[in-house]
Amino acid sequence: MQEMQRQPIVVGVDGSEHSMRALRWAVREAQLRRVRVELVHSYRREGIAVASTAAARDLAGKVISDVIDRHRELLDTVGWRQTIVAAAGGGAAQVLLDAGHDAQMIVVGTRGLGGFGELLLGSTSHHVLMHAAVPVALIREQGQGGPFDAEEHDGLRPLVVGVDKSPESLGALRWAIDEAQRRRVGVLVVHGVDAPNPAELRVLGLPFELVAVRLEEIRAAAREEVDRQIYRSVPVDGDVDIDRVIDDAGPAAALQRYATAEHLLVVGTRGRRGFAELGPGSVSHQCAHHAAGPLVVVPHRPS
Q1: How many beta carbons lie within 10 A of that of residue 220, not counting itself?
Q2: Helix 50-70 vs helix 17-33: angle between axes, to the nearest 10 degrees?
Q3: CA separation for the pair 210, 300 (Å, rounded)
């Protein structure tokens, strides 16, 4: 079939079953968006000798050819092309970033065997998430809550999106609403309140009634802010059900509570109060390591 000319979805493949699941997820996403898929494989030069470099590239070619042969029928439903690149100083992460700079999305699996190995657990995934100019989808083989079926791409469960008061999470919410319309599912907006611990407040000698009033004020302010973000995000011609939940567990814990292995979880980067820069301790970072199912991290694009 003729390749579609709009920006593709880029997926890193290395021959592992983990990356195969990422590929199948990417194809189904491409079907929804009516775009092609670009399969990207990275290999390392084995030495300075020309023969060693040629051998490494030949092996890489065999890996990606096997991937294509196994998924030819599925790939042909969207159109596709392959890219094989020798990893340089930036490693596999930079290969993906370069290939996906103008893509609609970069999709990666977890615990691969080759150049895209140990994603979510090491420096490669962190580098991709920190520097990608487009949304990055992380597809797990098995989440904290058990296995999920990546093939059931258009399930009936809503998308779960983390929202705070930042423009960065506003971008994630808009992306989630747009995606939910494609899938014909709803959106569950989750806000984890950074509320003080009632027990700690009472230790300070504050009356129970005062503590309860203060906590309810915090929750009310959070509900108002989330409702404002939702109002700013829904398109005029939008037709998607949106629910919201305010949880006292805090941002990361709240998202892990509501986003099971069967949900697609969406978070933004470089936000405030929880959905902050993708560093240790941030919500995005914690979700990348502990989300039960597939995760999409949406980068902030300043206007």
Answers
A1: 11
A2: 60
A3: 38
How far is CA 216 from each of CA 165, 177, 189, 246, rounded to the nearest angstrom? 18, 28, 19, 11
Q: What is the pTM of this model?
A: 0.84
The answer to whether the CB of 93 falls within 8 A of the CB of 128 is: yes
Q: Tens digit of pLDDT for each residue in 253-285? A: 899 999 988 899 999 986 444 344 555 447 877
Q: How confident is the model at residue 3 (pLDDT cuts 50, 70, 90)?
A: very low
270 and 168 in contact (C-beta within 8 Å)?
Answer: yes
Rounded CA gap, 156 and 69, in Å?
Answer: 31
- Among all chains, which residue has been given the structure tokens 């305010």? 246
Over residues 129-155, the pLDDT tens digits come to 778 899 999 887 654 444 444 445 555
Alpha-carbon distances of 119 from 7, 13, 101, 125, rounded to whole Å: 24, 12, 19, 5
Helices (H) then strands (E): counts for the chain: 10, 12
Phi/psi at 5 (nearest 5 deg)?
-90, -10
Distance CA 285, CA 280 (A): 6
